[in-house]
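hey team, just a heads up i'm posting the complex here instead of the shared drive bc the drive is being weird again. everything in one block, sequence lines first with there labels, then the predicted structure for the whole assembly after. its two chains so it's a bit long, scroll down
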Amino acid sequence: KQEVTQIPAALSVPEGENLVLNCSFTDSAIYNLQWFRQDPGKGLTSLLLIQSSQREQTSGRLNASLDKSSGRSTLYIAASQPGDSATYLCAVGGGADGLTFGKGTHLIIQP
Amino acid sequence: EAGVVQSPRYKIIEKKQPVAFWCNPISGHNTLYWYRQNLGQGPELLIRYENEEAVDDSQLPKDRFSAERLKGVDSTLKIQPAELGDSAVYLCASSFGQYTGELFFGEGSRLTVL
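-- predicted structure starts here --
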C-alpha cells in the first residue's frame, strides 16, 4: 500500500525567503504526482501536476521536482509572500488506487 | 469555466439521522471521486467513478454509505444512519482521463454529527 510522507509538518518563515517542502512515497510505480494548496475551510487547489515521465514542472514562483527512483518530490517556493500561507498537500497517483495523499505541510509566511 | 460544485457546504445533524451530499463535476470530466478528510489529515478516497460506473469503492463503508452517479454526470453520496465518527469534510473531485488527469476539487461539505 502506498504511503506518502510530508516533511516538515509545519513551517514558519519570514516573508521573502525561498523554501522547500518535501514529499516522499514508498511505491515508485506511480502515474503522476500532484501538489495542492488548501486554505482553512476550503477545498484543494491544484498547483502542479507532474506525470511519471517528467522530472519537474514550473508555475510562476513554484517549481516541483520528481525523482521516481528515490520516491521523492520537492516543492520549491521562491520569494515567499504572506498570501502563500496555507497547507500544502502532496498526492501520488497510483492508477486504479487513485491519489494517495500526505498529511500536508502547514506553512506560515510572516509579514 | 465552472469548477466542481458541491452542496451543502455545511451540515449539522444528530447521530442516526440520514444525510446526503451532491456534486456536479467540471463539464466533460468523466472521472469523479469522493474523498473524506478528517481534521489535520490528507483526504482519503471513498469511491471513484468512471462515467456512471463505480470502479473503486473498496474504502466505502457499505453498511451505511451509498453513492450514485446519475447519467455519468452529477453524483450523490449518502450516509444512513450517520455516526459521530462520520464528522469530517467530504470532498468531491473530477478529472479528465482515468489515471493521468489532473484532479480538481470542490469546496467540500463539512459534516458535523452530534
